[in-house]
Design brief:
Elements lengths: L11 H22 L6 H10 L2 H19 L2 H6 L1 H26 L5 H27 L3 H15 L1 H14 L4 H11 L2 H28 L1
Amino acid sequence: MYAAPMRLSSHRGWQVMTALSLVIASYATALFFMPQARPPFLRGRNDMFGLAVPLHLGGGGVALALGAFQLNAALRARRLRWHRIVGRIYVISVLLGGISGLRLAIASQGGMIAHAGFAALACAWLFTTTRGFLRIRAGDDIDHRAWMIRSYSLTFAAVTLRIYLPLSLAAGVPFDIAYPAIAWLCWVPNIIVAEYVFVRVSRARAGGHVIAADRG
């Protein structure tokens, strides 16, 4: 699902991840520009929190759409200048989406367990993205890549939430039971997979390149 450590421009996994991301980003964009189309609970949050809802929709949607392309190694190698420009937009989008998401977490559906899950997601999203930005500013490409893999795994929670929720309802799990669990399940498995599969592979490949360069 997370494409950073490999050249996945033609890989089905990257294609599926990107397609899902663009679908959900398009949905967020539509809700951003058409407030009347927002679900009733979201319109209620808009009345309570004002700009937090459009900022979360806009920031999260942009980050979701752009991040998939940022993690494609082949695109990054061919368009490094654009990678840097888009990367700055991604960071700003996460800051907007994360801060507003933290504000909205206290009023999410599902009670305190869901509030805590979404608040923890917002904090982790802001932290990993900030760390990734600071590492590239320090000139550490390897750490930067690792932190941005983690960051996008959390951005992708917008997709996994919308996969788990209909599946749980189709399985007959009541919303009041499913949603608090999904508030955690939509992102904790993502970052575990990112860490133990893709970050490790990325670091191993980077280490191999360093050794080869030293021998050359």
